[in-house]
Amino acid sequence: MITKKLIKGVTINILKRAETTLPDDVKQALSRAYEQETNEIARVQLKAMLNNVKLAEELQRPLCQDTGLPLFYVTFGRGCGSGNRNINVNFDDIERGIREGVKEATKTIPLRPNVVNPITREGGETNTGDGIPHINYKIADFNVNGLELLVFPKGGGSENVGAFAMLTPKPEEETVDEIKKFVLDAVLNAAGKPCPPTIIGVGVGGSADMAMSLAKTALLRPIGVRNGDGRVARIENELLDAVNGTGIGPMGLGGKTTALDVHIETADTHITSLPVAINFQCWVARKASARIYSSGEVEYL
Fold first, then answer.
1. Second label for 243, Cα 20 to 30 Å away, from 76, 77, 83, 267?
2. CB atoms closer than 10 angstroms to residue 246
3. Can you give the residue ranges of every domain in the chain?
């Protein structure tokens, strides 16, 4: 059975892993960038990043002093359907378990207390508050009696340079050009603020809130994995080349690699609308997940 206590324990474990161990796809992308870089200052920056990753893993200490805003994604397998009597998932247990897990992880990892009231700027020491940790729910196409829990600690520097616009719908070629221009303008405006090399998530379509959600979800896709729509995949490749052609480079100090990748997610939209959102992820692209089965077994992914 999936209990609050189980959710709490898994939350602590995946937060620890996310904060101290960079995913393999990100480490490999940073290593490739270092090997291919010719700018000496950029090489120094990339080498420092790789050394930082090694030390964080060895010492089990956070990769960055900004340990992020605690964002979670809960994905239910098809086996969680209402017709299945073998599983008992209580939403209150999930939310209380995650909240209690974040509180304990803040003390034990430890995490910087980042969560404050948006108006008064006052906050506690637990990284919890009104609406935080934020939990996204969805059902996916894996036939499992259980759920997947993913944590995505989001740093403030990269979050602060996100951008959104309602562009004017035009014929396809002009639309693509407008999207590219908007993304490149956002990259140039952000410059070194989001601690490049970044991963750039772009959301196109839906409603205004959907576009920003798509942009953030795009950041969860592994580096090098393209959108399933060939047209969108081509735009991703073209944008990645254009972004890296800006010369902003690691930490904004110049070089070949301004972004490790560009990911685009889309949704159909209103005939009169073209919402486009951009969400940046810094080079410390942290995430970690686990699958929790109805039996209580946990598989760390």
1. 267
2. 14
3. 4-16+63-155+286-300, 157-281
pTM, to two decimals: 0.93
Return d(Cα 13, Cα 8) in angstroms, integer: 9
Q: Does the pLDDT value for residue 83 go beyond 50?
A: no
Question: Residues with Cβ < 8 Å from 268, sequence gap 6 or more?
Answer: 205, 206
Could you tell me which residues come within 8 angstroms of residue 190 by beta carbon, excluding any fewer than 6 positions away?
A: 161, 198, 280
The string of pLDDT tens digits covering residues 240-294 is 999 999 999 999 999 999 999 999 999 999 999 999 999 999 999 999 999 999 8
Q: Taking the alpha carbons of 151, 218, 253, 58 in that order, is the dihedral positive or negative?
A: positive
User: How far from 193 is each of 7, 172, 183, 198, 247, CA to CA, in Å?
Assistant: 35, 32, 15, 10, 14
Give the Å distances, CA to CA, from 292 to 6, 134, 267.
Answer: 9, 19, 29
Q: Tens digit of pLDDT for each residue in 43-53?
A: 999 999 999 99
DSSP 62: -
Contact 31, 117 (CB under 8 A): no
Instruction: Match domain 157-281 to its CATH number in 3.30.70, 3.30.1330, 3.90.550, 2.40.128.
Output: 3.30.1330
Going by C-alpha positions, the residue among 156, 148, 159 that lies closest to residue 14 is 148
| DSSP letter string, 134-172 | EEEEEE-S---SEEEEEE--B-HHHHTT-EEEEPPP--H
Interval 117-157: pLDDT, tens: 999 999 878 999 999 999 999 988 766 789 999 999 999 99
Structure tokens belonging to residue 120: 């008064």
**What pLDDT, on a 0 to 100 scale, did the predictor assign at position 13?**
98
Amino acid at 3: T
